[in-house]
């Protein structure tokens, strides 16, 4: 018979099919005592899905009551944006009624999709207070949680984002290609989340890029913000970018969402990825760059620079942008390029530590 330390742990993970959550589990082929329930399909909650998890079916008191026999504990990561504090409180109350511990990983102290913090703060009040165990990704975020809620989360690093086989292949390909003739700096505006504020860093970033030999600025954005008639069209931003691109000062690429291989191609094609955020907390994008050997220039808001010692920081938050720090950080990266990224061995060892820590937390609650 197996011992308690060998027994399987069934986790109702919210969500399950997201790369961070998958990569906090065991390294493929190794002992895996933690089983995460597949995400129920919101269109048919009786069936599971690996692709569609929004909105999360598990964050519902009735689902918890009806499925209590299928899991041992719940672990919440993302997906509660549209759920009211009252409904979240009903979820946490039902978990306690069913004797199911709750683990919450504090990824975001500030929701990057919300212009103001009040709604997310109210959700955090419920989750952080009710959770039986808390995790976060950086000491700075843990300090904030402790200061505001009187509880200290366990700090565990963000695991790799790129798959281990793919990481190794792409790093080897980049090393074999040798130094590039140009220094390519990228900013991806995506669909302009509120924390990007119409690409406020762009004018000063372009000035900084133009001061560096062989440097090229590449700006990407989705059609909804950069195509006339788009749902979130930004005419002034579109005009500025188009004029700069027509003058040969930058390269503009308007395209829809990258699938995973295309995203790895895009990031691998950059020497530096600039995060243009004015508020936020942590970044999976930063971790993908770390896997692929692409340097990151990150803002001082949040705790991006605490995620990885290789991140270069510039001063940018809701109070404004320090253009000199932006130019200084870019110049520093220009003079010290050819960073290979974290190796497969380093990322594998880190993932083992993260998986073991999650298992220890789960077992301590059961």
TrEMBL record:
Domain of life: Bacteria
Disordered: annotated segments: 30-49
Keywords recorded for this protein, A-Z: Glycosyltransferase, Transferase
GO molecular function, one term: glycosyltransferase activity
Protein name (record): Glycosyltransferase
EC number: 2.4.-.-
Gene3D superfamilies in alphabetical order: Glycogen Phosphorylase B
């Amino acid at each position: 018979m197996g011992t308690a330390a060998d027994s399987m742990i069934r986790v109702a993970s919210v969500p399950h099919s997201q790369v961070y959550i998958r990569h906090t589990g065991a390294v493929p082929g190794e002992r895996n005592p933690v089983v995460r329930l597949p995400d129920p399909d919101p269109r048919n909650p009786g069936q599971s899905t690996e692709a569609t998890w929004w909105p999360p079916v598990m964050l519902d008191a009735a689902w918890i009551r009806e499925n209590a026999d299928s899991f041992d504990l719940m672990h919440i990561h993302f997906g509660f944006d549209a759920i009211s504090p009252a409904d979240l409180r009903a979820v946490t109350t039902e978990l306690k009624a069913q004797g199911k511990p709750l683990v919450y990983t504090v990824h975001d102290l500030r929701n990057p999709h919300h212009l103001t913090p009040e709604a997310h703060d109210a959700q955090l009040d419920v989750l952080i207070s009710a959770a039986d165990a808390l995790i976060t990704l950086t000491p700075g975020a843990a300090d904030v949680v402790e200061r505001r809620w009187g509880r200290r989360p366990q700090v565990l690093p963000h695991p790799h984002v790129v798959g281990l086989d793919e990481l190794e292949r792409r790093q080897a390909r980049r090393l074999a290609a040798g130094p590039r003739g140009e220094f390519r700096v990228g900013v991806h505006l995506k669909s302009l989340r509120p924390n990007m504020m119409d690409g406020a860093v762009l004018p000063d970033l372009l000035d900084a890029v133009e001061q560096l030999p062989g440097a090229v600025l590449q700006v990407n954005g989705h059609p909804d913000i950069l195509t006339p008639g788009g749902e979130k069209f930004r005419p002034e931003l579109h005009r500025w970018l188009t004029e700069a691109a027509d003058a040969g000062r930058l390269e503009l690429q308007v395209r829809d969402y990258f699938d995973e291989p295309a995203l790895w191609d895009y990031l691998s094609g950059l020497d530096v990825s600039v995060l243009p955020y004015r508020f936020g907390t942590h970044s999976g994008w930063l971790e993908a760059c770390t896997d692929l050997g692409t340097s990151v220039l990150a803002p001082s808001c949040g705790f991006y620079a605490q995620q990885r010692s290789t991140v270069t920081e510039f001063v940018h938050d809701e109070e404004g942008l320090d253009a000199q720090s932006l130019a200084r950080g870019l110049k520093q990266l220009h003079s010290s390029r050819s960073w290979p990224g974290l190796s497969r061995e380093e990322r594998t060892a880190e993932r083992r530590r993260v998986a073991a820590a999650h298992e220890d937390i789960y077992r301590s609650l059961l």
